[in-house]
Amino acid sequence: MPYKKDLYSTPYYKEPGPILDKESPFESMMERFRYAAEILKLDDGMFDYLANPVKQVTVSIPVIMDNGELQVFEGYRVIHDNVLGPSKGGIRFASDVNIDEVKALASWMTWKCAVVNVPFGGAKGGVRCNPRELSTGELERITRRYTAAMFDVFGPEVDIPAPDMGTNEQTMAWIMDTYSMHTKKTTTAVVTGKPLIIGGSHGRKEATGRGVVTVTLAAMSKLGISPVNAKVVVQGFGNVGSISAKLMYEQGSRVIAISDVSGGYYNPKGIDIPEAMAYSDANKNSLEGYEGAEPISNEDLLELECDVLIPAAKEDQINKHNAPRIKAKIISEGANGPVTANADSILDDLGILIIPDILANAGGVTVSYFEWVQDRQGYFWTGERVNRRLNRMMRQAFQLTYDVKEEYNVTLRQAAYVYAIKKVAETLKLRGIYA
Ligand code: NAD
Predict the structure, then answer these.
(1) Whose CA is nearest to atom 32 of ligand 1?
(2) What whole-number distance in Å separates Cα of residue 256 and Cα of residue 271?
(3) Where are the domains of the chain?
(4) Residue to mutate (ligand 1; options 93, 105, 165, 261; most atoms within 8 A of CB)
């Protein structure tokens, strides 16, 4: 029986089957959803409601390429849920993106927004294309035609896109402009992640790393670990990893290892993070050849003894194979899905506190919310105000999740899902079902 296919054709399942592979990020997320639903004793109707997206749109995007030929791309937008408010989620340009992946990512956004208490539902979009093989003109035409096709889906009070893999500030500027041409007025609040000059927010670029560090410090405080001289290991030195490393360094922590796709860099005395960032910036965003530390493999780096491990590169990095050898006290998930569901219980048995992705890396969507608020007010905040409010919201979210952990005697990850699902389910009950 093609159980796995069925699994992907709807984002959730109720009974995990024998061939369930809890090593993939989507299946891991589904497993966690199912478990939290069980703890909450959700009835079947509510389960089905939360398991299925409210809207799925697939469009064809015809584009005249630079060589004069017509090419048709497929584009998607899935709104998983809009009970808490307008839906929010990024747009991914990738050659392998498909509707099932977009569905799973959209539900991920629902839980992430609910955990940090931003008044948004979850959504995700995608266009099946390879952005690296396309010219700027072709990317612009794809983006504009996709936006026009989604004109009835997007809207500042309905559904608000943001960047994701393969899209960036420029893509958001094109979406904003195209949408504004249709509404015949500049509508900045229709997307977030825009350049500052056209309604973007201060602090947006640093927001995810900053949020990671805020919740990490809160967790360290719960465990009685001082950030000063604490040993920190960071996997991935892109946006999230480098900012997390920098902010932990500024707290007085010893960042003993960092890494990127070129490999790991280890210095037990602590790495000079501003120097490593300057090196990476000057070296096309690569740490290759960095001499402030000894080389170490990305696998060994994850297994270093440390107080805090921040996986901020990609999914599935800590799985059932290496989980028994992890020696961190806290894992703070900068990346989405870096720890698989199979690894969760192993790490829990080892007494390791995991700050789950839907909480740890929600600083990005929180500042996206601030950007949307500023655009709607037409009044822009200072970076200092953005950071202060971000820190407050992340600290509150951590504490609320921690309270659920204590109340239900579950892990912090299970608590985050319980908190999020409960919030959406309770809101739905209050709103009722329109008939
Ligand atoms: P990025 O592209 O800026 O950086 C990724 C980094 O990981 C790079 O340094 C890259 O060299 C490194 N890397 C890639 N493969 C690696 C490997 N096998 N081992 C070690 N390092 C490797 O991406 P980012 O924006 O920092 O995102 C990182 C993760 O955080 C992703 O999972 C992303 O989904 C998640 N995330 C990002 C944001 C955000 O606002 N940027 C928000 C939420 C979640």
Answers:
(1) 335
(2) 6
(3) 4-49, 53-187, 207-360
(4) 261
**Adjacent-strand bridge partners of 234:** 258, 310
* Largest Cα span, the chain: 66
Nearest residue (CA) to ligand 1, atom 16? 261
Please tell me the CATH code under which domain 53-187 is placed. Answer: 3.40.50.10860
Which position has the token pair 């089905």? 48
Q: Is the pTM of this model over 0.90?
A: yes
CA-based nearest residue to 241, from 252, 249, 230, 231: 249
Residue 418 is encoded by which pair of tokens? 């319980």
H or E segment and range at residue 124? strand 121-128
If you measure from the C-alpha of residue 119 to the centroid of ligand 1, how many angstroms do you get, rounded to a whole number? 26
Q: pLDDT, tens digit, for every residue of 371-401?
A: 999 999 999 999 999 999 999 999 999 999 9
Question: Which residues, judged by CB distance below 6 Å to any ligand atom, belong to the binding site of ligand 1?
Answer: 208, 235-241, 259-261, 298, 312-314, 334-336, 361, 364
Q: How far is CA 268 from the centre of its chain?
A: 30
Given a cut of 80, is residue 25 above it in pLDDT? no
Query: Do residues 52 and 11 lie in contact, with contact meaning Cβ atoms separated by under 8 Å?
Result: yes
How far is 281 from 252, CA to CA, in rounded Å? 23
Paired with 55 in beta bridges are 79
Q: Helices (H) and strands (E) in the chain — how many of each?
A: 15, 12
Give the residue numbers marked as catalytic: 124
Question: Ligand 1 center to residue 148 CA distance, Å?
Answer: 30
CA distance 200 to 163: 12
Atom 2 of ligand 1, nearest CA residue: 238
CA distances for 288 relative to 268, 278, 294, 301, 313, angstroms: 19, 13, 12, 16, 16
Span 207-360: which CATH code? 3.40.50.720
Q: Which of 206, 258, 260 to mutate to test the pocket of ligand 1 (most atoms within 8 A of CB)?
A: 260
pLDDT in tens, 238-289: 999 999 999 999 999 999 999 999 999 999 999 999 999 999 999 999 999 9
What 3-state DSSP class applies to 161? strand
